[in-house]
Design a protein that fits this description.
Helices cover 35% and strands 14% of the residues. By secondary structure, the chain is of the alpha/beta class. The N and C termini lie close together (11 Å).
């Protein structure tokens, strides 16, 4: 979507161990960029979370992360620089840049550990991740991107980056691309439209098994739509937020102080770090589903 949006310059893409292993993720990113006619540099990132083993989501997205349709290898190779280094360099080179994260936050956390001051040089950090005040999609408590590397997510949450949290709940219900809308995209007759539907074929099946909903749930494009046009958001509010890293039951849970009780005497000790730093995140609660889909269609026509 960003690569096909007039007036938007994508200066770099980084990959991380998430839905698939990081080398496969780089291959997928390069293939997709080529399909969009872009030569944007792709930088390979972390092969595993900061402190944990990597659990892929191949059960949802297929072994190759694109529905196992046997797409050809890309013509280009990833850049030689590592993802964390690239993030630091690009933020320094483009102060005020908009950063969009669509996977686990390992690379972002590593970049912040190298150069904490970059947090203040980002104008927006749109994070596809979390299940604020609702059920998760990989455990009852957590959304996959945050659950995969909760320690990294906590570093980002506490960094002072201007995070806009676009949670998993925003791609459900009326936000799902229904069967009629899937047909509409296919009727565009474009290579990118066909690819967008086809590469989500396995995910469509898995989403139905998981939720009983028919259609394609598209959390990453929803987050990108918000990044491209913030006015798609209809309800958002700023709150202290943090990520659970110690409990196995609620690992990766995005805990949002929605009722603003963190400063209460009984909670002050637990939330001391966030209160002292004063860092709040913007939590997106609802979006205009019709407008998000129009943003998607613009990128696929």
């Amino acid at each position: 979507m960003a690569l096909r949006s007039p007036g938007v310059e994508v200066v770099g893409i980084t990959t991380v161990a998430g839905n698939v292993a990081v080398r496969q993720a780089s291959r997928n990113a390069l293939y997709t960029a080529e399909l969009c006619g872009s030569s944007v540099p792709v930088f390979t990132g972390a092969e595993k979370p900061l402190t944990r083993s990597h659990w892929s989501a191949d059960w949802f997205h297929g072994r190759d992360g694109l529905g196992d349709h046997g797409y050809p290898a890309p013509r280009r190779s990833p850049g030689k620089m590592g993802a964390a280094e690239a993030i630091v360099e690009l933020i320094e080179a483009y102060p005020g840049i908009v950063m969009v994260t669509l996977g686990p936050l390992t690379n972002a956390a590593l970049a912040l550990q190298k150069r904490p001051e970059i947090a203040k040089k980002v104008s927006r950090c749109v994070v596809m991740g979390g299940a604020p005040c609702c059920e998760g999609n990989v455990t009852p408590a957590a959304e996959y991107n945050i659950w995969c590397d909760p320690e990294a997510a906590r570093i980002v949450a506490r960094s002072g980056m201007p995070v806009e949290l676009v949670g998993w709940h925003l791609c459900r219900g009326e936000a799902v691309l229904n069967l009629k809308e899937i047909e509409k995209v296919m009727e565009f007759g474009t290579a990118v439209g066909k690819f967008a539907i086809e590469c989500n074929s396995r995910a469509q099946e898995a989403f139905h098994v998981q939720t009983g909903e028919h259609g394609i749930s598209l959390p990453d494009p929803v987050a990108m739509a918000v990044a491209l046009d913030a006015s798609i958001v209809t309800v958002a509010s700023e709150h202290f937020w943090d990520v659970e890293t110690e409990s196995e039951l609620t690992r990766g849970m995005t805990v949002v102080d929605r009722l603003n009780v963190a400063r209460d005497e009984r909670n002050r000790e637990v939330w001391a770090a966030q209160i002292a730093a004063g860092h709040k995140g913007k939590i997106v609660w609802t979006i205009d589903n019709g407008r998000w889909k129009e943003e998607l269609y613009r990128g696929l026509r």
